[in-house]
Amino acid sequence: MRFFKMAAFAAVLFSVFFIKNSSVALASNGDDESINEKYGLPVVVYGAQLSPSQKEEVRKLLNVTDTSKVNEITVIGQDLATYIKGDPNAHMYSSAKITRKDPGTGLIIHQVTPENITEVTNEMYANALLTAGVKDAVVDIASPVKVSGHSALVGIYKAYDQGKGGTALNKDRTEVANEELNLATNLAKNDGVDKDKVGQLLTDIKKEIAVQKPATKDDIAKIIDDKLKSLKITLSPEDRQLLIDLFDKMRHLNINFDNAKSQLDHLSQDIQQRIKETVGDKNFLQKVGDFFKKLFDSIKSLFS
Questions:
Q1: pTM score of the predicted model
Q2: What is the mean pLDDT of residues 64-88?
């Protein structure tokens, strides 16, 4: 009789635990934000090669439950050629949702399907978008298939260029931002630098430029060399020079690195918070697991 009571108690606990977690997931998935009349509707950009079923899958991934509450546009191969000088015949799958936020919010990047974005990390997206002039927005990125992730970036540029993401972006800045993203992905592929470390390198260089405000190309080179040394990154002479040339172009465009630093700080804080939440969830699940282990050990002891 004692065994059956304990087994019934365990079953009840299991039911409560799983029902609780299921209801939380449903509440999260069903959360429907009101329309922000100050900034307009979120913009959702779809890759042109998505099939109807894939497009519907992306809608679900980006939490688009009512298409009347978003602006939907499509990014095509020609856009790739226009905005980042890519191949106009390229297949476009990665998609994005841009939701503008109040000044000071920062730029928050969220890859919904990180397993399918193979080349571009959150910080790479953030650095390129900040260079292009995008700020104070939540950007969700998703793809139903494995892709590099470039069409999502092109789609964001297109959204802003059409005035649907806010103020149109400066073409010179988007071109430099494209060079930055290409260099970042190449450093990871050609020089074997960890992708997260590449993002950290770009972020640290920008933050240091915000502090030092270099006046010459030599000043830029010194900052880059210092950051390469502190992060223990070794680049080929050619890639080091490309990095120097890139940031010197940014200097000539008078990009506000103080603003970029603030935005990147917001992004870093958001990532750190998510890490804390993940660790907290793991600790909670570990405690639940330990509880049930002890419970079933007690049940087993009834038969020993």
A1: 0.71
A2: 91
